[in-house]
Fold:
Amino acid sequence: MNKISEIPEQESIPENPAVETSADPWRCEECGSLRSVLPKHGWTAIRDEVAPAAPEQDDLWCDGLRRAHPYQIRESELMSDTVEPWWNDGTTEEDREIITGLNPENFSPKDDRKAFRDACDMWWNGRTNDEKIRLWRQATAPEEE
Structure:
């Protein structure tokens, strides 16, 4: 089944509006969740207080993945190394049509639909990191059996 076709129309809602986050918070490298990387001992939120080398990976639990031993990285790294490359190189014209709601037939076919691609990129660049991560996570989630 195509995960991108299952992405519902998104509203701009922060992942956790009641909690202020740093400019570059820690996130789970695999699922992108903010509140998921917790120390197993006590399982209290550690989001910005722990450097990657501080706790051992064996001491972390990812609530988003529902398993132990996740890696945590800064949001800026997740965006530059994973989410943005997925958008730029890992999505097709059909994917972008589904995600953005834009119709390529409404754009000039000249230059291999450059106007459509540019409009999709403009739409994408108007999203917050939380929105981009949510879309990436939904589109790339492994199939559930």
